[in-house]
Structure prediction request, 314 residues.
Amino acid sequence: MPAIIPLVARLNDWETAQWLRHFETAFPNARVAPLETLTPQERAQARCAIVANPDTADLATLPNLKWVQSLWAGVERLVRELPDDTIAITRMNDPQLAETMAEAVLAWTLYLHRDMPLYRQQQNTAQWVQHDVTLPKDRPIGILGLGTLGRAAATKLRSSNFPVLGWSRTPTTMPEVETFSGKDGLDTLLSRSRILVLLLPLTPETTGLLNAERLARLPQGAALINFARGPIIETEALLHTLETRHLNHAVLDVFKNEPLPPTCPYWSHPHITVLPHISGPTSYETASKVAAHNIRTYLETGNLPPIVNRSQGY
Ligand SMILES: NC(=O)c1ccc[n+]([C@@H]2O[C@H](COP(=O)([O-])OP(=O)(O)OC[C@H]3O[C@@H](n4cnc5c(N)ncnc54)[C@H](OP(=O)(O)O)[C@@H]3O)[C@@H](O)[C@H]2O)c1
Prediction:
């Protein structure tokens, strides 16, 4: 009898079909099935489930659930909404996702580094104006969050000769990267980062982390890339630092409300580039393999992969 693994997700039909198709290949000895197709007896057998934006009321219909494997890397909503802390949560930790995100960090860093927003604006008014080029060695990049994604991004930026400064909750080291932790470490990193990249999880501690005071610590003319979560930056403070031109430009991929409402002033702001949450998309192919490996190991050995620390929120 193949193990039955419920898929508890709020996805559209096409996305659900993609996941099921990829799990058939990645996990041929199991039957990954949408929760709604399972009988009460089948639900009672499940000790683990695959989740993507699950309704926690649905998870409550799995009486023996011990562990969930998220298809997403960011799990702040699941941590907030799943009151039963006897259920362990594993977030998606996929090397391919880290590589894709690192590529996006490099791409949008180069967009800012080579003044592309400015040249686009000049084209709109037929202005032929050449600006000096800064060498990568003279443009330090600060990365907030030195986890799976932050480290991959740091490596990619170093390979293009940008000096990299990284900030994490606990002190850490990384070759060729200057590392910082703690509030004082954050202040130092901000004061030296000409481009700031956010790759932090959203937790009570990181919500509103980039307030007016911290944004003001960035050097005059710095730029910012938020690939983490919208509420890490205070909206009013961001708009103010852009309007006073202390901050030159912001590339925003993530927002408090997604999709970003058409009335949001970000859309038409000359110094904001809006992206529709595309910096680090989950790959059906590789993420299904990662999830299948974790579940297979759990079913065979009882060993869980790394799980979210509920008190830290990530
Ligand atoms: N835009 C997208 O498409 C997209 C895609 C995937 C993920 N994301 C976002 O990226 C986030 C990071 O992913 P990840 O896989 O790199 O996570 P991760 O491996 O858990 O790393 C998180 C990093 O943030 C640090 N951190 C957490 N709280 C902190 C705090 N209060 N102060 C300082 N540093 C703190 C951690 O410090 P320690 O090293 O000390 O633990 C760690 O270095 C996700 O949570 C998600 O929100 C976005």
